[in-house]
Design brief:
heterodimer; A: alpha/beta; Nucleotidyltransferase, domain 5; 9 helices; 10 strands; B: alpha/beta; four-stranded parallel beta sheet; 8 strands; binds iron/sulfur cluster
């Protein structure tokens, strides 16, 4: 049995394939302007027996094919749990939304919260700020906060925050300091969301931004708790969907 | 939308014909997508489909005919404004709706951005010349409920010159009751002066029995939704409640009872609009004026069914009847004042009855989850949402803040679907 999960995010489409219960392959592609074509390509390439879709674009597949869908909340809960069986809290910072999900002992979703409608505190926010500061997204998260000043970005709104960043640049603030401040502002938003939902341990960081080590260390410092990151954190949603596909 | 050509009527009312044609187009398309695409609808919904298709046509023609015959048309924005008084003075009472994002740019000349969508919409509708009801009205009755409305009525009056405001107190002490009773009396006098018709005990009794009959029909509909499978979709039931605000009350009552007869049958046959066992959602919070179907469409598009509206377009409107045991007009006014002051709007403090009502309703409708809906910037309901969330135990509860726009549709859908996944 080949069960596939496909997670259609705002930036990337992620796919995971389970063959007889074992993770056999993963794929990642740009969402692009024609996500449906991308998905069809992936579906053809992988040729699974059963597929479940999740992510922001999941309904695209539901409408155009007969593929079953689940929300990314459910998919992440399942996938993160498979990657880290002891986890009780999931932090997911995605391209356009940020979520904190709280799980009970057996891994069912107890409570969750996600940002609504605005990009503050999301991957998009980081992307825009990286651009304003002239960083490539890949290098942006690997700056060290060691010895950096306590510079603050005060605005929650992406547009205002961007002008704040620009005014800091023109005032001669160091680029690295500003970058750390930008990350701190995202971290603080996530922490306050977690305070409302759950900080039960183990805490895991999933989704694309989980590879951002600066963000992880700032969240850990702010929470005073350790966060575990699995090997392929970006695949959690697709894996969760694949696990549901496998069950039929 | 309808067969007949009403262009002349709309033109005479001073509507902006071009904008208006656009609005009807959008409305009819939305209705087709959201309503007519539903499966397993009760047959008796045909009447309500018809009413919607004639919302700016036949119904307006009826109202204009009534005006011709010397009756006064009164528009209201809130369930605190007593319909019985309007009817007793032989008037036509219309609950003005404002459930679509229309004319926001125009409205922006009078209102700050952080005003709730409902207020923006009633200003927007007027300013873009889109509402035949507002144009037909002889009097528009406002009320001092929330701050936004209070101040918006001032501008609305500057524009229309037809606004009369009732002072609704914000507490329910003995002094407040006195104030409210005197406001009810003042409104009665206003209606007598406007219509030139006396309000008699007999006339008032007739009015009360009409409005009570309408409430009873809506209560009946409400109770039927407790069945599993739900015999009617939340969308359809919401529509019936919305239509109750502007349809002719007697005909509406008859047609709603007919619908309920069919639903009775469905319940005994086990026929549902949704599958048996589908997660049942109680919606609670700010009013959803026509054509605001956004939340219900998302809920039911996600495989759950909305089984109740703890809202002014819903329970708050019909939960309490008016005691018909009175022998003088003064006595009637006292009963009326006390019936209306029993409404549990979030504009009051304290407002613990509402929390109790949410709990009771969740129980009687066998709700699996509660979604609290606040219009963005509606401080009274946004605040009470937290209180309700803390007070309701045993039923999963989710707070939502949104407006009429579609920009948050995707995120809302994800949140609501995930909430429903938890309930399954
Ligand atoms: S919510 Fe309050 S102010 Fe608004 S219509 Fe209802 S009773 Fe009136
Ligand atoms: S929805 Fe809230 S803010 Fe808007 S008019 Fe009603 S009570 Fe006022």
């Amino acid at each position: 049995m080949r069960a596939m999960g496909i997670d259609i995010g705002s930036r990337f489409i992620k796919a995971a394939l389970l063959e007889n219960g074992e993770l056999a392959a993963t794929r990642m592609a740009d969402t692009s302007f024609d996500p449906l074509e991308r998905c069809k390509g992936l579906l053809e390439e992988v040729a699974a027996d059963k597929v479940v879709a999740t992510g922001y674009g999941r309904h695209l597949l539901e409408i155009h094919t007969s593929i079953q869908t689940i929300t990314e909340i459910k998919a992440f809960a399942r996938g993160a749990r498979a990657l880290l069986p002891s986890c009780r809290t999931i932090i997911d910072i995605g391209g356009q939304d940020t979520k904190v999900i709280s799980l009970n002992e057996v891994g069912s979703v107890k409570k969750f919260e996600m940002n609504d409608r605005c990009a503050a505190g999301t991957g998009k926010f980081l992307e825009i700020m990286a651009r304003a500061l002239g960083y490539a997204l890949e290098e942006f998260g690997f700056i060290s906060s060691e010895g950096r000043s306590e510079l603050q970005i005060n605005s929650m709104c992406t547009v205002f925050a961007e002008s704040e960043v620009i005014s800091l640049i023109t005032k001669g603030a160091k680029r690295e300091d500003i970058a750390v401040a930008v990350h701190r502002s995202v971290a603080n938003r996530v922490i306050s969301m977690a305070r409302r939902v759950s900080m039960d341990e183990d805490i895991t960081f999933a989704g694309g931004c989980a590879k951002n080590s600066l963000l992880k260390s700032l969240i850990e410092a702010g929470m005073g708790k350790r966060i575990m990151v699995a090997e392929k954190p970006e695949i959690a949603g697709a894996l969760g969907a694949a696990l549901y596909a496998q069950e039929g | 939308m309808s067969g007949k050509d009403y262009t002349k009527m709309w033109k005479d009312l001073g509507l902006n014909l071009e904008n208006h044609a656009g609005l009807l187009d959008v409305l009819s398309k939305a209705y087709k997508d959201i309503y007519l695409s539903q499966k397993n609808r009760p047959k008796a919904m045909e009447y309500f489909d018809f009413v919607i298709s004639e919302v700016h046509g036949l119904r307006i023609e009826e109202i204009l005919n009534a005006k011709e015959a010397g009756r006064k048309v009164v528009g209201t924005f809130c369930v605190y404004v007593p319909e019985e008084i309007v009817l007793a003075a032989d008037g036509v009472c219309i609950g003005l709706c404002a459930g679509a994002e229309v004319g926001s740019d125009e409205a922006g000349k009078y209102l700050p951005r952080n005003t709730c969508a409902l207020i923006k919409a009633f200003m927007g509708f007027k300013l873009s010349g889109l509402c035949p009801y507002v144009e037909s009205a002889d009097l528009i009755v406002g009320e001092t409920t929330c701050d936004g409305k209070k101040k918006a009525y001032e501008s609305f009056n500057d524009i229309t010159g037809k606004v009369y405001v009732m002072e609704v107190p914000h507490m329910k002490t003995t002094e407040d009751r006195k104030l409210w009773l005197s406001e009810v009396m003042r409104f009665k006098d206003k209606m007598v002066a406007l219509s030139g018709k006396e309000i008699t005990v007999v006339g008032f009794k007739k009015a009360v029995s009409k409005v009570n009959a309408k409430r009873k029909a809506l209560q009946r509909l409400s109770r039927l939704r407790a069945a599993d499978p739900a015999p009617i979709s939340g969308l359809d039931a919401l529509l019936v409640n919305q239509v109750s605000f502007y349809d002719d009350p007697v005909r509406f009552t008859e047609m709603t009872n007919k619908l309920c007869d069919e639903l009775d049958q469905r319940v005994s046959n086990g026929t549902g609009a949704a599958a048996k066992g589908a997660p049942r959602i109680l919606v609670s919070g700010s009013p959803m004026a026509i054509p605001n179907w956004k939340l219900h469409a998302i809920i039911e598009g996600s495989g759950a069914v909305a089984v109740g509206e703890e809202s002014c377009i819903g329970e708050r409107n019909h939960r309490d009847l008016l005691d018909e045991n009175f022998s003088t007009v003064d006595e009637a006014m006292e009963k009326l004042a006390s019936r209306y002051l029993g409404i549990d709007c979030a504009c009051f403090t304290p407002n613990n009855e509402r929390i109790d009502n949410i709990k009771a309703l969740a129980k009687s409708l066998k709700a699996d989850g509660i979604i609290h809906y606040s219009l963005q910037f509606c401080t009274p309901y946004m605040m009470e949402a937290y209180k309700a969330e803390r007070a309701v135990t045993g039923v999963p509860f989710m707070r939502i803040e949104t407006d009429y726009s579609m920009e948050d549709f995707g995120q809302l859908k994800t949140r609501i679907e995930a909430f429903i996944e938890i309930l399954r």
